[in-house]
Amino acid sequence: MGKEYERIEPRLWEFIERQKVFFVASAPLAGDGHVNLSPKGRQGTLRILDDRTVAYLDFGGSHAETIAHLRENGRITLMWCAFEGPPNIVRIHGRGEPVFRDDPRFPGLVAGFGEADGPALRAVIVVTAELISDTCGFAVPFMDYRAERELHANHFGRKTDEEFREYTASKPYNNASLDGLPAVPLPLPPRR
């Protein structure tokens, strides 16, 4: 049976921190717009800032749908599900904001991620919960975690910040969403 919460209670906090992957959903306001659902991973790239706020690192390399949707309307849902241990699904429905490299809050937010910071970082997505819920997850299969993928870090780790900024500017999917909404503000400012 599902339950709703006003804050990220300790049991939910511990569950979220144990998960290796989470999913991000967003959508434009237009009824015929494309709903986006993205898997996120890389150990240490998600932080719970307080009992109603989470943040994750947003790296370049693929589309910027979530950023475009957040800039337009702020709606976002994060979801974690148990692939091992007792079944559970936790969702945070809320309002998100991309904090870009030229925002004065960016260095302080990034510092909290320690070694998880890496090449190709575009923004920190900060999500304030409006509704937190969990459900049973009885139908979620068991799956085993093997290791982190190193492809993204290896590919972008060879690029200087200037090369990454040029790469970002050259890809239309960083400039706008599939529906033409503005995404990453370009030119991407250098890292401070």
CATH architecture: Roll
Helix content: 10-25%
- Average pLDDT, to the nearest integer? 93
Q: What is the CATH homology-level superfamily? A: Electron Transport, Fmn-binding Protein, Chain A
Structural shape: globular
SS elements, strand count: 8
Number of helices: 6
Strand-pairing-aware structural class: alpha+beta
- Major sheet size, sense and barrel closure: 8 strands, antiparallel
Helix/strand order: EHEEEEHEEHEHHH
The CATH topology: Pnp Oxidase, Chain A
Our Rg estimate from Cα atoms comes to 17 Å
Contiguous low-pLDDT stretches (5 residues minimum) are none
Tell me the domain tally: 1
Distance between the termini: 47 Å
Percentage of residues in DSSP E strands: 25-35%
Tell me the name of the CATH class: Mainly Beta
Pfam family, one: PNPOx_N
Domain Pyridoxamine 5'-phosphate oxidase N-terminal: 10-136
Organism: Lentzea atacamensis
Protein name: Pyridoxamine 5'-phosphate oxidase
